């Protein structure tokens, strides 16, 4: 390293010629490119005839390291709306605080009036789109669930670009590849939702969490699950354990082809 | 006010030779004409109540509320100029939100009162502004549950945090009253506005400093006190408006809310009855008028 | 901990960000009377040990301390700012700041400046109302409440050790044993961790420092050293 402090952090004159100090000017484009660091994986949700079931595991990964194991990614907003977060945990916490202040402010204007899941989804989609347009996205994909203005089950997604999507079944991240096709067997379109019972929906989601635990290398066997109905509000359980896993068949596997012992 | 007319009362921020700021004293006059407001610090919560004078029959009953919420756990009510009160509340909300963005937790009632006191006081210092024409009562409940950082995830040890000291101070009710000068004190019971003298006399009878008054009983007392304080302006119609805050395990779950209508009606019914009873008992006697 | 020097790469123009990725180990745990913080004492510039007796346990208020890992310059700046805020809070309010207050301030700084900072922090503190609490703030600026937290590159070597031997509500003696045992493993396997073991025990009685030296088998001198 050069012993002259003036030269520190600058290209060497002997290699690059005299340093052009105009490069030091602070005006110009502002780059915020970031990357997610501590992350949560999939979130899944299914509509059933009188509500919604949503689940996400309790893991926050740091690269491939399973770093934090009690991270609750289903964040209730009130008794009729909940957001499930995938992606960066620090951005999830930012959004959690933002929604908290939204709730406080909403109460100032009209005490007792509560925002429903649809309102929340619209709000979040605007926030996400604004941030991606500022080239400073919030690195999340979320499922917003709950009841809409007519107290009907509501399920919709928003991602880091502000893209929104609705369907009777939704899954983010790895779940989009593995869980969504399985969940579609339950309800392929809106007309089939009326035939889905709460029990069937919960069982299907639990089955998908199991498949994801088998096949998603960033997943955990402890998870949170919530059911939202008009009658029961948000019923959230945050320390569930996967049940009925199938591993014993490993006993029948020998070698990688022709081996018999 | 013997110095009135000497010219020292025409401008804010100017002292009179005997050390008074007349503009502030005039602001107090504006407060003295306002509807009575009271705050009671109970064992398990805070009650705010106000006598809302009905200035027109064309106003919808129950609309145009005078008690405002700041953050979730604090209530503000003020006597005096209503628009000044609104601006005061708006500032209180800004302070609460700025506190949250710095410390990731709700603002303690005491800290809010301090910041608002400083804000009001600043309006006595400059000739370009006038003092606030309100006296505000700020009441709330600082959570006594384990404090969380907004947005935090994860859990501590399942056995709970080690080394907690029993009886260490944690949360509880807070009640403050801020005057046009910026002066503020913490109170067990606070009253301001037209009927403040009668209200104060009633509050003093409650032995609030013992900290034994239950919230529900406090609601009944608050309604009665507003009715007593209204005696002197009987010719005007009024609405009783009342709000409360309790601890997380109390009726409001730590939030500042309007007292539910069923309870409010019950309190009003009892207050009216108490007033009738008083008329019969004291009827001709005493007739002691509280001095204005 | 890494000294902020040797920034220029071979070509003389590219800043070598890898200099930040080297290591150390630090941790904080809750126990029955409060919290214990612990750290090694090695600061490296590449493979060179720039300081072999570093103190990585930083006080930000009477009984609120933190373990810093990542860029020394960044984490010191962040700790100084938080220390200023907590000092101010302490004199302006009757009730002093809590560990939660400190964690909130750290989190805001780390999150808002995530593009510019390379700072991983563990915040541990004690107050009478909330007892002992440990928070972890990893690189992106998220905030995690934990029964115990480990950090620094050396920590990857002791995830298994800590998970196996962790017990809730340990006595002070057990707690010190756990922290020392874990740090010894990290020092043993991680080239970027080393030197002495420093501990700070935070309880209702205040902050007490401990020191354990490698040439004494990490047995002494111990408390108050």
UniProtKB/TrEMBL annotation, chain A:
Gene: PRE4
Function statement: Non-catalytic component of the proteasome.
GO CC terms in record: cytoplasm; nucleus; proteasome core complex, beta-subunit complex
Gene Ontology terms, MF aspect: hydrolase activity
InterPro entries recorded: Ntn_hydrolases_N (IPR029055), Proteasome_beta4 (IPR016295), Proteasome_bsu_CS (IPR016050), Proteasome_sua/b (IPR001353), Proteasome_suB-type (IPR023333)
Tagged with keyword Signal: no
GO BP of this protein: proteolysis involved in protein catabolic process
Keywords: Cytoplasm, Hydrolase, Nucleus, Proteasome
Gene3D superfamilies the record matches: Glutamine Phosphoribosylpyrophosphate, subunit 1, domain 1
Subcellular location per the Swiss-Prot or TrEMBL entry: Cytoplasm; Nucleus
Keyword Glycoprotein: no
Protein name: Proteasome subunit beta
PANTHER family: METALLOPROTEASE TLDD, PROTEASOME SUBUNIT BETA
Family under the similarity heading: Belongs to the peptidase T1B family.
UniProtKB/TrEMBL annotation, chain B:
GO MF term set: hydrolase activity
Protein localization: Cytoplasm; Nucleus
Keywords: Cytoplasm, Hydrolase, Nucleus, Proteasome
SMART domains tied to this protein: Proteasome_A_N (SM00948)
Keyword Iron attributed: no
Gene Ontology BP term (one): ubiquitin-dependent protein catabolic process
Keyword Zinc on entry: no
Alphabetical list of PROSITE patterns matching this protein: PROTEASOME_ALPHA_1, PROTEASOME_ALPHA_2
Domain of life: Eukaryota
InterPro entries reported in the protein's UniProt record: Ntn_hydrolases_N, Proteasome_alpha, Proteasome_alpha-type, Proteasome_asu_N, Proteasome_sua/b
Similarity field: Belongs to the peptidase T1A family.
Official protein name in the record: Proteasome subunit alpha type
Gene source species: Ramalina farinacea
Automatic annotation (TrEMBL), chain C:
Catalyses which reaction(s): Cleavage of peptide bonds with very broad specificity
GO BP, one annotated term: proteolysis involved in protein catabolic process
InterPro entries: Ntn_hydrolases_N, Pept_T1A_subB, Proteasome_bsu_CS, Proteasome_sua/b, Proteasome_suB-type
Cellular localisation: Cytoplasm; Nucleus
Gene3D superfamilies from the UniProt entry: Glutamine Phosphoribosylpyrophosphate, subunit 1, domain 1
Keywords: Cytoplasm, Hydrolase, Nucleus, Protease, Proteasome, Threonine protease, Zymogen
CDD domains from the UniProt entry: proteasome_beta_type_6 (cd03762)
A single GO cellular-component term on record: proteasome core complex, beta-subunit complex
GO molecular function: threonine-type endopeptidase activity
Keyword Chloroplast appears in the UniProt entry: no
Family: Belongs to the peptidase T1B family.
Subunit structure: The 26S proteasome consists of a 20S proteasome core and two 19S regulatory subunits. The 20S proteasome core is composed of 28 subunits that are arranged in four stacked rings, resulting in a barrel-shaped structure. The two end rings are each formed by seven alpha subunits, and the two central rings are each formed by seven beta subunits. The catalytic chamber with the active sites is on the inside of the barrel.
Function field: Component of the proteasome, a multicatalytic proteinase complex which is characterized by its ability to cleave peptides with Arg, Phe, Tyr, Leu, and Glu adjacent to the leaving group at neutral or slightly basic pH. The proteasome has an ATP-dependent proteolytic activity.
Name this protein carries in UniProt: Proteasome subunit beta
UniProt organism field: Ramalina farinacea
């Amino acid at each position: 390293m050069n012993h002259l402090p003036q030269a520190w952090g600058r290209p060497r004159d002997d290699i690059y010629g005299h340093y052009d100090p105009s490069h030091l000017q602070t005006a110009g484009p502002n780059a915020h490119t970031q990357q997610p660091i501590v992350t949560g994986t999939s979130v899944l949700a299914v509509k059933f005839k009188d509500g919604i079931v949503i689940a996400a595991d309790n893991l926050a990964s740091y690269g491939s390291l399973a770093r934090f194991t009690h991270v609750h990614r289903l964040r209730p907003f009130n008794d009729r709306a909940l957001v499930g977060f995938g992606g960066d945990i620090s951005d999830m916490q930012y959004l959690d605080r933002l929604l908290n202040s939204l709730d406080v402010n909403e109460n100032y204007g009209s005490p007792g009036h509560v925002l429903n899941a649809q309102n929340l989804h619209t709000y979040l989609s605007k926030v996400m789109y604004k941030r991606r347009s500022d080239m400073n996205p919030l690195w999340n994909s979320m499922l917003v669930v709950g009841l809409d203005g007519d107290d009907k089950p509501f399920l919709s997604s928003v991602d880091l670009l502000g893209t929104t999507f609705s369907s009777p079944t939704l899954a983010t991240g790895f779940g989009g590849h593995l869980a969504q096709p399985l969940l579609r067997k339950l309800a392929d379109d809106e007309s089939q939702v009326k035939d889905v019972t709460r029990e069937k929906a919960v069982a299907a989601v639990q089955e998908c969490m199991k498949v994801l635990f088998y096949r998603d290398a960033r997943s955990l066997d402890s998870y949170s699950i919530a059911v939202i109905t008009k009658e029961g509000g948000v019923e959230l359980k945050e320390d569930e354990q996967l049940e009925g896993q199938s591993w014993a068949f490993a006993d029948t596997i020998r070698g990688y082809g022709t081996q018999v012992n | 006010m013997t110095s009135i007319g000497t010219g020292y009362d025409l401008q804010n921020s100017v002292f009179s030779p005997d050390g008074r700021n007349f503009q502030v004293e005039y602001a107090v006059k504006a407060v003295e004409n306002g509807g009575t407001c009271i705050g009671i610090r109970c064992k398990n919560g805070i009650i705010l109540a106000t006598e809302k004078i009905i200035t027109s029959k064309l106003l919808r009953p129950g609309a145009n509320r005078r008690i405002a919420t700041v953050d979730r756990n604090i209530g503000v009510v003020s006597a005096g100029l209503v628009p000044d009160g609104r601006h005061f509340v708006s500032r209180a909300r800004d302070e609460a939100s700025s506190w949250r963005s710095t410390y990731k937790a709700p603002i303690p009632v005491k800290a809010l009162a301090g910041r608002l006191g400083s804000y009001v006081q600043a309006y006595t210092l400059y000739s370009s502004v006038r003092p606030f024409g309100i006296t505000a009562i700020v009441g709330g409940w600082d959570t006594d549950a384990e404090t969380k950082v907004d947005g935090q995830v994860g859990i501590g040890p399942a056995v709970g945090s080690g080394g907690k000291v029993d009886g260490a101070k944690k949360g509880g009710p807070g009640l403050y009253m801020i005057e046009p000068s910026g002066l503020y004190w913490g109170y067990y019971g606070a009253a301001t506005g037209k009927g403040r003298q009668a209200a104060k006399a009633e509050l003093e009878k409650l032995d609030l400093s013992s900290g034994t008054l239950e919230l529900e009983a406090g609601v009944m007392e608050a309604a009665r006190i507003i009715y007593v304080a209204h005696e002197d302006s009987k010719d005007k119609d009024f609405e009783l408006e009342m709000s409360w805050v309790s601890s997380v395990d109390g009726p409001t779950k730590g939030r500042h809310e309007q007292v539910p209508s069923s309870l409010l009606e019950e309190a009003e019914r009892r207050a009216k009855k108490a007033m009738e009873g008083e008329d019969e008992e004291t009827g001709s006697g005493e007739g002691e008028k509280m001095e204005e | 901990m890494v000294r902020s020097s040797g920034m220029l790469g071979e070509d003389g123009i590219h800043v070598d960000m890898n200099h930040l990725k080297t290591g150390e180990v630090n941790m904080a745990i809750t126990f029955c009377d409060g919290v214990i913080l612990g750290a090694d004492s090695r600061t490296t510039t590449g493979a060179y040990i720039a300081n072999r007796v570093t103190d990585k346990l930083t006080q930000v208020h009477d009984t609120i301390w933190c373990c810093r890992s990542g860029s020394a310059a960044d984490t010191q700046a962040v700790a100084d700012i938080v220390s200023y805020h907590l000092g101010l809070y302490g004199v302006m309010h009757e009730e002093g700041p809590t560990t939660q207050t400190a964690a909130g301030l750290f989190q805001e700084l780390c999150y808002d400046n995530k593009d510019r900072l390379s700072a991983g922090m563990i915040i541990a503190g004690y107050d009478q109302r909330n007892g002992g609490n440990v928070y972890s703030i990893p690189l992106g600026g998220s905030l995690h409440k934990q029964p115990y937290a480990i950090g620094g590159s050396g920590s990857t070597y002791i995830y298994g050790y800590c998970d196996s031997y962790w017990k809730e509500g340990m006595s002070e003696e057990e707690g010190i044993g756990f922290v020392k045992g874990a740090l010894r493993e990290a020092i043993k396997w991680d080239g970027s961790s080393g030197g002495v073991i420093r501990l700070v025990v935070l309880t209702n009685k205040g902050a007490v420092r401990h020191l354990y030296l490698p040439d004494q088998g990490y047995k002494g001198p111990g408390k108050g050293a």
